[in-house]
Amino acid sequence: MTDGLGTIETVGCRHLLTVSVAEQMGVLTARQRARQLAHLLGFDHQDQIRIATATSEIARNAVEYGRNGRVQFLIDLTADPPLFVVRVTDEGPGIVEGEAILQGRYRSQTGLGLSGTRRLMDRFSLESTPGKGSTVTFAKILPADAAGLDMQHIGRLSEQLAREQSQDANEEMRRQSHELLVALDLVRRLESEAEKRRADMARLNQELQETNRGVVALYAELDERASELRRADDVKTRFLSYMSHEFRTPLNSILALSDLLLRRVDGDLTAEQEKQIGFVRAASHELFEMVNDLLDITKVEAGKVDLRIGTIEVAKLFGGLRGMMRPLAHSEKVSLVFEEPPDDLLIVSDEGKINQILRNLISNALKFTEYGEVRIRVSCENGQVVFSVSDTGIGIAPDDQERIFREFAQIENPVQRKVRGTGLGLPLSRKLAELIGGTLTVTSDVGAGSTFRLAMPFAVGDSVLPAGRSQSIEGHFAGLAPHAAEQGSPGSILIIDDEEVARYLTRQLFRGTRYLMTEAAGGIEGLERARFDRPSLILLDINMHDRNGFEVLEDLKSDSATKDIPVVLHTSYTLTQDDILRLNGLHAAMLPKQAGDHDEAKAVIRELLGEPHLFSKQ
């Protein structure tokens, strides 16, 4: 039987020494000779002890369990690597548990035993026949400096060993006892170190448990803070959305009233009055733009912005922008240059959102460019369409190139002090760019100008729309039929709105027409007037104090007396996708209550009333 480390062959081994172990003194002699040989062969102190201990253990077994024991010391230079071999034989009854010993299932009750020896040595084998004795062979790989031994060296080694006399048995016992004490001291130190490590591990485990409890508590606190932040963000969004809607109504009124005055509807103005009203209108328009930007930002953050996806001819898009932005290039020192795009360049996206982004970029470029040009171009790069707006203006420092995309951020610069801005245009533009699946970036050098790049896919479809977005329903008043007044009747138009200024401005729109204007200051009153007057048209606000416009509209369309009267939702309220779905089947036109939209309003009303020449005398 052999162990898993390989068979030990003794055929080619060179004999060094043989020791008889018929009694305990022979065991001490074998141990002593094993130590001497190990020393002469260059083994280190620890290996000398291992070889001596293994030899004495197996020799003791031969004395206690067998008879006529013998220990042979051999060296095998033909093995790879070369080995120092110890072979112990006896003529005893044999070893019954040999297989269990080699498999590690047997443990000696009296000492190190065979299994312990097997662990100390590099090679180990056991041959045993019941009634005929046993042979235990074990070996240690020679040190590197002894691997070059030849037969001549081995001969001299044997002669030297023969000349050396055995030490006194008591001396060997003292040496063995000393080694045992050293081993016991090492064991005690190891046990002390192990105990210290166990204490350290216990302390570390305690610290880890406390840390884990702290981490759990921290996560709970972070979750709570995150929930608070989400609630605060929701409150902020609702507040900004509500306030934006509330601001839009009086601002619309101011703009509309100033427009009436500037058009001299009720008489002429002095030059100073016109100048003052112009200041009022300009300030109101600036505030109105800020409110619109705030509202757009809150809608984007809340995921309530609808996309109107359609095919866009880039050449026509540039044509519209050129006409719209040219009046802003008021300085002859700055040129506004649109590079002509290819006539066949088409993209599928939301034209209104792209228009809004480019308008913001061009407007900013014109504001901050005192000399040179603002150039707008489009190119195709890496499967994307890229709109770029370049200027030769003041430029943006590297540290500020991300800050400008934060809400209300302003850069300190002498030119900045001359122009006014809200700090909302660029943040809104980046959010809108992300909404249509694109990116908005900037490259700039201070004093040398800036280039803003809007990169986006050629087609924005359902597969690339951000989560939570939806396409809006097209058409303002599809399905509505003209509803003319009865022959010979002047006809009437009912205004249902709880804002007195809004009712006044709507009356002014119909000034000089043949229609009789009636008013209701709330939804409940409006329903009664509609049933009694049977008007030719109803202009209905949505946000009212008693009943909202949706409820009034549903009641109007469910009543046989009023269901055929055309209804125009005339409001500053921005419809959500849910609102649009709610209006499906109710046959109502949508007309924004915004200053400057008179032509659009008149066109809608002409079609609803079936009077193509209405307002022609105004």
Overall structural class, as computed from helix and strand content, comes to alpha/beta
Q: Which CATH class of the largest domain? A: Alpha Beta
Rg result: 50 Å
Mean pLDDT: 78
Distance between the termini: 120 Å
CATH topology assignment of the largest domain = Heat Shock Protein 90
Proper CATH architecture of the largest domain: 2-Layer Sandwich
Tally of separate domains: 4
- The percentage helix is 40-55%
Q: Given the C-alpha coordinates, what overall shape results?
A: elongated
**Number of E-state strands:** 19
CATH homologous superfamily classification of the largest domain: Histidine kinase-like ATPase, C-terminal domain
Strand content: 15-25%
Model regions low in confidence, pLDDT < 50 over at least 5 residues: 1-6, 462-479
In order across it, which strands form the biggest sheet?
1-2-3-5-4
Biggest sheet details: 5 strands, antiparallel
Task: Write up this protein.
The chain has 618 residues and is of the alpha/beta class. The protein has four domains: 154 residues, Histidine kinase-like ATPase, C-terminal domain (Heat Shock Protein 90, 2-Layer Sandwich); 100 residues, Helix Hairpins; 162 residues, Heat Shock Protein 90 (2-Layer Sandwich), CATH 3.30.565.10; 118 residues, Response regulator (Rossmann fold), CATH 3.40.50. It is 46% helix and 19% strand. It is built from 16 helices and 19 strands. The longest helix has 94 residues. The protein is elongated and about 145 Å long.
